């Protein structure tokens, strides 16, 4: 009888378990036959690169005086030439369990030689990371957009211990979210590269989720109204809060005026207005076309006194609100990886009780593309509904009312679309 080598078996088992944990998961099924029309991939191959950049003049949130060097990691998607290496994306759950997911993009593929594609910045929530909306970034790039998603330093899931120190990066987040968004536009606009050469930076969009939405509203011309009580709620002492509140109450990503390159904004479940942190006067003066997307039961950003109020206060002539009935806050992330199902803390970052995350993602792809194409490319505006209710009604003759343009018959319920 051959004796088992115990140390060898332990090593082998650890390798096997590690591979099971880190094996790239496919989070999406092929639903091309029943997806909304504009949720289908576009005609371009999509390349993706990871890039580190540094803002050498970032506002110093540690002493609120002067600047410091702020490092950011960017995931960059773009129309690309053929390549063989399919991208995977590695991230961590809120309890810092590592997972890897499969993408459709081509890792480090060369960009195509010609084009003039609008620029999109994607900004995650608190906490999150640059891959949280990878499905949307890949989708937009396949339809002719350059997309840069940010890892917001001090605010990523990897950096924050949500159990023992959940607010550690919150002050930095309040200061830097919009400033990071603006810096990414500035950086790539000034940088000469094959990707920048095919980018139209005069047609820029910011897409923000939760805290990313908090920043996006400010970036396109909004102003914060942070009060001492808001800072005291995150642990700042009263005397210091009185001094610092004006520093948190910036406009237009810390600029004197809004950058005119911003031509559209998409805000998924934007945070802040339940606490009246966005100036109502500045919202009324917003000119940039805006698409708000919210769950009707959002218990983080709020709906009636949160996202819906933002929509109603926004003055843009092209202003829309997409509402998921019975959805809470997690309307934007990709589906939960397998490992997230091990505990509520991790699953709660992705899971929606009444909705399939995959279906939410497909609807997001459809409407964000329709909105951006309409406002940046002056095409497909007909895909933005003119009827509030997405649910088709059965008529007396046994037939159904018309589906929203681009949606399969009887496919959609529980979605509303408002235009102010």
TrEMBL record:
Q: Does the keyword Hydrolase apply?
A: yes
Gene3D superfamilies noted in UniProt: alpha/beta hydrolase
Pfam families according to UniProt: PAF-AH_p_II
Name its GO BP terms in alphabetical order. lipid catabolic process
> Which molecular function term from Gene Ontology is one that the record holds?
1-alkyl-2-acetylglycerophosphocholine esterase activity
- Which top-level group of life is the source organism from? Bacteria
Sorted alphabetically, the keyword list is: Hydrolase, Lipid degradation, Lipid metabolism, Signal
The secretion signal range is 1-23
Protein's UniProt keywords contain Hydrolase: yes
The family database entries (InterPro entries) matched by this protein are listed as:
AB_hydrolase_fold, Serpin_CS
PROSITE patterns of this UniProt entry?
A: SERPIN
Q: Which PANTHER family match?
A: PLATELET-ACTIVATING FACTOR ACETYLHYDROLASE
In Swiss-Prot or TrEMBL terms, this protein is called Acetylhydrolase
């Amino acid at each position: 009888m051959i004796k088992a080598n115990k140390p060898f078996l332990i090593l082998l088992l650890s390798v096997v378990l590690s591979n099971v944990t880190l094996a790239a998961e496919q989070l999406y099924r092929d639903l091309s036959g029943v997806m909304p029309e504009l949720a289908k991939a576009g005609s371009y191959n999509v390349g993706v690169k990871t890039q580190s950049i540094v803002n050498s003049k970032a506002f110093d949130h540690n002493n609120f005086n002067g600047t410091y060097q702020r490092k950011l990691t960017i995931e960059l998607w773009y129309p690309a030439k053929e390549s063989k290496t399919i991208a995977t994306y590695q991230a961590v759950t809120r309890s810092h369990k590592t997972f890897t997911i499969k993408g459709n993009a081509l890792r480090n593929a060369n960009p195509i030689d010609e084009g003039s594609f609008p620029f999109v910045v994607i900004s995650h929530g608190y906490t999150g990371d640059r891959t949280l909306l990878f499905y949307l970034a890949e989708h937009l790039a396949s339809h002719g957009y350059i997309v840069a998603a940010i890892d917001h330093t001090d605010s990523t899931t990897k950096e924050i211990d949500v159990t023992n120190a959940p607010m550690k990066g919150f002050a930095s987040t309040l200061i830097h979210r919009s400033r990071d968004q603006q810096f990414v536009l500035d950086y790539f606009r000034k940088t000469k590269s094959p990707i920048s050469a095919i980018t139209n930076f005069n047609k820029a969009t910011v897409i923000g989720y939760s805290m990313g939405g908090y920043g996006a509203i400010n970036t396109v011309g909004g102003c914060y109204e942070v009060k001492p009580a808001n800072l005291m709620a995150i642990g700042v002492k009263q005397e210091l809060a009185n001094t610092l509140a004006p520093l948190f109450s910036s406009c237009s990503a810390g600029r004197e005026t809004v950058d005119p390159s911003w031509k559209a904004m998409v805000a998924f479940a934007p945070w802040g207005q339940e606490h009246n942190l966005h100036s109502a006067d500045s919202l009324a003066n917003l000119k940039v076309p805006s698409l708000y997307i919210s769950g009707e039961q959002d218990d983080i950003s709020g709906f009636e006194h949160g996202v819906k109020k933002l929509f109603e206060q926004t003055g843009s002539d092209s202003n829309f609100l997409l509402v998921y009935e019975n959805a809470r806050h997690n309307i934007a992330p990709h589906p939960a990886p397998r490992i997230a199902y091990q505990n509520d803390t991790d699953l709660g970052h992705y899971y929606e009780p009444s909705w399939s995350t995959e279906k939410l993602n497909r609807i997001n792809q459809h409407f964000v593309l329709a909105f951006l194409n309409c406002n940046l490319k002056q095409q497909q505006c007909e895909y933005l509904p003119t009827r509030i209710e997405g649910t088709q009604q059965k008529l007396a003759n046994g037939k159904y009312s018309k589906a929203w343009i681009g949606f399969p018959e009887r496919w959609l319920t529980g979605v509303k679309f408002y235009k102010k």
